[in-house]
Structures are given as C-alpha cells and as structure tokens.
Specification:
The protein is of the alpha+beta class and 113 residues long. The chain is built from two helices and five strands; from the N terminus they run H-E-E-E-H-E-E. Pfam families: DcpS_C.
Length: 113
C-alpha cells in the first residue's frame, strides 16, 4: 500500500511526531495553515469518515482524547482551536486516509469556504 499516512505510521517516512499511542500518531503538517497545525491519524487504514463503523469507532474516540492532550501540550487549549476532517473529493480530502487537522495558535477565520 502506498498510503502516505500508513507509511508515516509505520515509520517508513519521517515526521515531526508530537504524540503517539498504539493506535494513533500525531505529527506536524508540512504545509501549516496556522502556527499550530497537527495531523492526528489512526494507524489502521480507514479511508474516510464514511468508513467509520462499530468496529473502528473506538480509535476515533481515542483520537479526540489525544486532541485534548495535544492542544494542552501545544498551549492552545485555553485560547481555542479548530479540528477539521475533510471527506471525499468535494470535501477536498487530499489523502484518502482518515485524519484530523488540529489548528490553532492565532485567531482563525470565521469562514471555511
């Protein structure tokens, strides 16, 4: 499989890892859109939000628990942050592996379009 996020999770591609557990990895985005821009990714390949089900939803819960810890460690928990997951072509999902963008470190735009 040539999924870039699977390769990062398997340590075949280096990343600036900020958090890791048995099931997830979080790393700094190479093209940050905010002072803090971290991608939080399940290690198991889940293509998109459309593929979350009862068998893999536990890892999604773990991702959101990790986002809380990461936001605190990055110093943005109190000031605020945004979590985004793009789904499908119209949602501009560029990597077909479920991932969540954690953005913060400045006042973010109110518009997303």
């Amino acid at each position: 499989m040539s999924c870039i996020f699977c390769l990062i999770a398997e340590k075949q591609i280096p990343s600036q890892c900020v958090y890791e557990s048995d099931n997830i990895i979080a790393f700094r985005d190479l093209n940050p859109q905010a002072p803090v821009h971290i991608l939080v990714v399940p290690k198991m390949h889940i293509t998109s939000m459309n593929d979350i089900n009862s068998e893999n939803s536990g890892v999604v819960a773990e991702i959101f628990e990790a986002i809380n810890k990461i936001a605190e460690s990055e110093g943005i928990k109190e000031s605020g942050y945004r979590v985004i997951s793009n789904c499908g072509d119209d949602g501009c999902q560029s990597v077909k592996h479920l991932h969540f963008h954690l953005l913060g470190g400045r006042k973010l735009s109110e518009t997303l379009s």
